[in-house]
Write a structure and sequence with these properties.
By secondary structure, the chain is an all-alpha fold. It has three domains: 6-153, no CATH class; 160-310, hpI Integrase, Chain A (Orthogonal Bundle), CATH 1.10.443.10; 315-380, no CATH class. Helix content is 56%, strand content 3%. It is built from 16 helices and three strands. It has helices spanning 6-26, 30-36, 42-51, 61-64, 75-83, 96-120, 128-145, 160-169, 182-198, 202-207, 250-263, 287-300, 310-327, 332-343, 352-355, 357-380, and strands spanning 213-214, 219-222, 244-247. Strands 1-2-3 form a three-stranded antiparallel sheet, with no helix packed on it. A hairpin with a 4-residue loop joins strand 1 (213-214) and strand 2 (219-222).
Length: 381
């Protein structure tokens, strides 16, 4: 886990916590099995895949009790018993991407244990080639049960009508603005503007400092600061993409300056740190605090998208960027490089395809209609 972000390490540790709970629940001694040249049976891998779909807090103490394992006499009954532990409500299952991450962490952890075992060669062990074959089969079985097609489940940006609706309702003077406190109204309006106009990730937004904004040049520096000792937040927001400078329009720059001087500066606790966006107390705004902003919007403005999140606005930015590039007839290669820079991606990254799905689909429809009209026009003539 060297050089990984703290959030990535935490996710991996939670996956291993789930795995050790699963092993205890099923009475599986993994080290003993490695000595015997085996790992998990297929029905156990199936149960593991099901367990990875569940929130950690749904694992009860009773599940870890060995008594639970003697409740059935056959493997089929045993499998049905554990299937019944899955939550009935869909909303109690974790996102497929979380399931996939958990399974991948567990897969790599078991592979690592097997390599350690082979290096030490403790106890009676099968031929190393045989154990490696078992590990390969385990990895294939795990990969086969990891949710696939996650890219197709990625969100697309919100429609132009919803963009206008969001911008209207979050204006500080909007009659249907869901917040009462004037500071909160102004701060939240600026947060939405930054996400909507800059396409930042939530970690990039919350990691931004006042000193990162160059008001003279009209840019904000997006910088990587993993494990920042100056960040007092329990869950530190991190920048996952490359460091870069993002331009701020004169209007957005003025709104940011006004927020810093008149609103943020009036919060005594905000003087103790340099983070740009702060809570009402003046402390750096937390990940949960940002999530609450969108939760309030979704709850009070029902016509907004039910999945409205900071990341959805990142997708929206990419849709708007594609539209602007088309209108200005920017060459495709130039567009790709510009998008990659502003999003913090490598120029060779294929990530852009995830964020341009709506635009590509609409462009394909327009081309298809043009072709149809041209063919029909030829027939009429």
């Amino acid at each position: 886990m060297k050089n990984l972000a703290s959030n990535t390490i935490a996710n991996a540790l939670r996956a291993l916590q789930l795995f050790t709970t699963f092993l205890a629940t099923e009475g599986i001694d993994l080290r003993k099995r490695l000595t015997e040249g085996s790992l998990l049976d297929l029905h156990e891998i199936e149960l593991l895949a099901q367990a990875c779909r569940r929130p950690l807090d749904t694992f009860s103490a009773a599940e870890v009790s060995k008594a639970d394992r003697s409740a059935s006499s056959t493997r089929r009954a045993w499998l049905e018993q554990h299937r019944s532990r899955l939550p009935d409500r869909k909303e109690e299952l974790v996102h497929p991407a979380v399931t996939a991450t958990r399974l991948q962490c567990i897969r790599d952890y078991v592979t690592w244990l097997a390599e350690i075992h082979l290096a030490k060669r403790h106890g009676a062990c099968l031929n190393p080639r045989d154990l490696r074959s078992v590990v390969s089969g385990f990895r294939q079985a795990i990969d086969a049960r990891a949710p696939s097609g996650l890219a197709s489940q990625e969100r697309e940006g919100i429609s132009p009508d919803m963009r206008s609706r969001l911008n209207r309702v979050t204006r500080p003077d909007a009659p249907d603005n869901p917040w009462v406190d004037l500071f909160v109204r102004d701060r939240n309006a600026l947060i939405i503007d930054w996400l909507y106009h800059l396409g930042l990730r939530r970690g990039e937004l919350l990691s931004s400092r006042v000193s990162d904004v160059d008001f003279r040049r009209g840019v904000v520096r997006v910088s990587r600061r993993p494990d920042d000792r100056d960040d007092p937040r329990r869950v530190q927001p991190v920048v996952k993409t490359r460091a870069r400078e993002v331009p701020l329009s004169p209007g957005l720059l003025d709104m940011t300056r006004q927020y810093v001087v008149e609103l943020r500066g009036a919060r005594p606790q905000a003087r103790k740190h340099d983070f740009l966006f702060v809570a009402e107390s003046g402390a750096p705004l937390s990940m949960s605090g940002l999530a609450k902003i969108f939760k309030v919007l979704r709850a009070n403005i029902p016509d907004l998208p039910a999945d409205l999140t900071p990341h959805l606005l990142r997708h929206t930015w990419n849709d708007r960027f594609s539209e602007e590039m088309d209108q200005n007839k920017v060459p495709e290669e130039t567009e790709r490089k510009a998008r990659s820079y502003l999003m913090g991606w490598s120029e060779t990254s294929g990530t852009a395809a995830v964020y341009t799905r709506r635009h590509v689909r609409e462009k394909a429809k327009r081309v298809s209609l043009d072709l149809q009209e041209r063919v029909l026009g030829d027939k009429v003539e």
